[in-house]
Amino acid sequence: MRSIVERLADGIVIVDATGVIRFANPAAEQLFGRNRDQLVGSQLGFPVVVGESTEVEVVHPGHGAITAELRVVDVEWAGAPALLVSLRDITHRKRAAERERQLERERAARAEAEASSQAKSEFLAMMSHELRTPLNAVIGYAELLDLGVAGALTNEQRHQLSRIRTSGRHLLGLVNEVLDLAKIEAGRLSVSIGVARTREAADAALSLVQTHADEKGIRFAANCLGDGDAFYVGDEDRVRQILINLLSNAVKFTERGGQVALECGTTNEPDVEARLPECPKWVYFQVRDTGIGIPPEHLPVIFDPFVQVETGHTRSTDGSGLGLTISRRLARLMGGDLSVRSAVGAGSVFTLWLPAATAQPTAEGSERIERKVDAPQVRGLSEVGELVLHEIETILEGLTLRIRGDDRIPKAKTLRFSQLVDHVPTYLANLGGMLIAIEDTGGQPSSLLTDGADIQRLVAERHGAQRARLGWSEEAVRQEYRLLGEELTRVIRRHARAVSQAAVDEGLTILMRALEQGEESSIRGLQRMRLAENDEAARVPPNSSIAALDASVSPRG
β-strands 259-267, 225-226: how paired? Predict the structure, then answer.
């Protein structure tokens, strides 16, 4: 019998009537992380009931908490009644079940969010006529009255009509932005791809914003600086729309006496911030200003819908917060991108990137370029995404080992596995799903991707709040993300032998950008939790009964 017990995979211990361990097999030694001499003579530490099974957590010195299934039967040991306790390690089974539940909740939440977002987008996309018609009527009748169609007007009446027209046009602009975004998300907004000269779009945008700049006393470059004769591939109307938005924002956030300029040109080396497909040459439109700049923590989110640097009812500028969102999505629909560099107090630089055309277009050349832009090369990303989903456990195991061994994260050494991984499985599952969705949608914007980004941001913020409750520093959280990026890269490159190198590189580029955004969201969550904890602490008077009770409790208590 001893020979059989010695070879069992389950941990077996014999416990006497006082709860003291009298025997332990090798599997029990491995489970507890202690040898037989250390176990025999010590207390088991778990309540045991004959005939019932339960789950307990065993603290292993090298591997943190282990979940074990405990069963008990009556035996005799050395002529006295005793208990035989069987312990089976079910940690992996529990983790797998929990991951499955998390993934199922994630799938349900994603499906619900996608259905809700699609319904909203469809509704707004169909509201174009109903919203624009009455607004155009208000503006039109105000203009007719100003022309004197209904009779002569006084100066004061003309002044009031001017306010009506201005407010009506402003409201119409906001409605148009909301409807454009809804059309993009519903997949109803299209771009007409052709070849055009940079100077035409630049001059048209500059002329429309010139008056506003003059009114604010801003030095305004009235011409496109640099190479205005370069040809780009894109929709001229949409390019002009993007430039008007960028120039208007630059004027809006630049104080009197400042400067706004637009520079055009071509390059073979676009900014690293731009997410661009393969192309030998790029045309850029660069809008520079000397305005207030953008804080670093806001840069990752300024292209998200309805996000503005200034918030609240007292903000100094108006707008819907959709201009940059629409501009970037239009740029990507045309095979380009919109990037930003900024520093507080030093101004901002927004750059529109578009594929360059080497010569003036012909009908045949234009058609060829249109096909190239409309078919972005995103094949293979779903395979990378499925690899991430399949290897979540491998990534988590490598990540936890590295976090526990990193001196820059001292708080991690005493945490259980569940505390260490926290929201990471859900976050990784969403990243894998994002890559699959990108290939499924052909690289075009979709409500699924938008909802996925919202879920990623929410999960990352909750992760940062959890790290704050555990006492982690901002540097520790940033180091955790660096380690996660390295483990993600290592696992993907190791297991993606059947995936093309181009797809692996593109997938890792997208994942690293997502991790950068996730890191900033976690830092915001950590900071908010600390502020909330400080506010809560400030509400407790120092001479309160709670403070008195804390003072009376010994450190051991």
Answer: parallel
Read off the pLDDT of each residue in 37-43 and give the average, rounded to a whole number.
87
Q: How far apart are the C-alpha atoms of 306 and 325, rounded to whole Å?
A: 8
The C-alpha angle 11, 15, 20, rounded to 5 degrees, equals 115
CB neighbour class for 227 (10 Å; exposed up to 12, middle 13-18, buried from 19): middle
**What is residue 512's three-state secondary structure?**
helix
Contact 392, 92 (CB under 8 A): no
Q: Tokens 């604010």 sit at which residue?
A: 216
Task: Identify the CATH number of the domain defined by range 381-539.
Answer: 1.10.490
* Of the candidates 173, 264, 254, the residue with the CA atom closest to the CA atom of residue 213: 254
Pairing of strands 64-77, 53-60: antiparallel
Closest CA to 239 of 213, 271, 264, 214: 264
**SS3 for 135-149, per residue?**
HHHHHHHHHHHHCCC
Arithmetic mean of pLDDT, 448-459 = 73
Residues 194-374: name the CATH superfamily. Histidine kinase-like ATPase, C-terminal domain (3.30.565.10)
Q: Work out whether the CA dihedral 402, 405, 406, 409 comes out positive or negative.
A: positive
Look up residue 252 and give its amino acid.
K
H or E stretch covering 384? helix 381-390
DSSP SS3 for 277: coil
| Percent of the chain at pLDDT exceeding 90 | 11
> What is the pLDDT confidence band of residue 308, given thresholds at 50, 70 and 90?
low
What's the CA gap between 310 and 321, in Å, rounded? Answer: 10
SS3 16: strand
| Calpha distance 490→493 (Å, rounded) | 5
Domain 2-89 has CATH 1.25.40.10: no
Q: How far apart are CA 351 and CA 353, in angstroms?
A: 6
H/E stretch holding 76: strand 64-77
